[in-house]
Amino acid sequence: MASTSKTALITGGTSGIGRELATCFAQDQYNLILVARNQQELDQAAQEIKQQHGVEVTTIAKDLFKREAPFEVYEQVKASGTQIDVLVNDAGQGQYGTFDTTDINRELDIIQLNIGAYVTFTKLYLQEMLGRGEGKILLVGSIAGELPGPLQAVYHGTKAFVNSFAESIQNENKDKGVTITNLLPGLTDTDFFNKADMARAKNVAEKSGMSVAAEVAKDGYKALMAGENRVISGFMNKAQVTVSNMLPDELVAAKVHQESKPLDDNESAH
After folding, report:
1. 221 included as an active-site residue
2. Which of 96, 144, 261, 262 has its CA 20 to 30 A from that of 227?
3. Which of these is catalytic: 30, 118, 125, 155?
């Protein structure tokens, strides 16, 4: 059985980068609390992880589109008496299309998930960790937050928030025993693009330069454990951010737009 009683709470832990991060923690004998919407997917992930690594896995099915959901998760965990040693904010979604044609209610949900849930979980657990003088927080940002994102305007905006938010709270809390790490993946081969209705985008359909979720998770896990502030996963993504920082935003926006155009080139189609 688990040789340690350390526990990591992971949002979006049933698929993609979140699921791979769960594996990284389980390999190091962390007990896990996985938070996602679908109970069936949670049960399956929990069963696989328990069988492979022999750690305890608790699941909490919550819809993080709802503003009160992170508070409810926090209260439920608190009531169980479990101390969260590591918080992983991973759950995130996007929506593809020109901003004038996309669904505003879906976008408000995405803002709540990608920003609201991150901010709420981070505040609640950061306060606890500061009280103890130790703890770790991993924010899954994105290189999307470093680039303008035509056809994914709201998603890129939410990730720009996460990247800026991370830098601010890292500075506020340095030398207080709590590590806050921002992981910036690029295009990664996950279910994200199906949920974003983005499978027909050129760069997604061609899988050009796409990262493997397991590699991204390893990069993030390593950086978190080493106490690093930020890690851009993948050489090509590092190069893209470096080049983009040197170019005018208008040029970067045009390039991103070109790369993510739909193969059928009908941008407003749904």
Report:
1. no
2. 144
3. 155
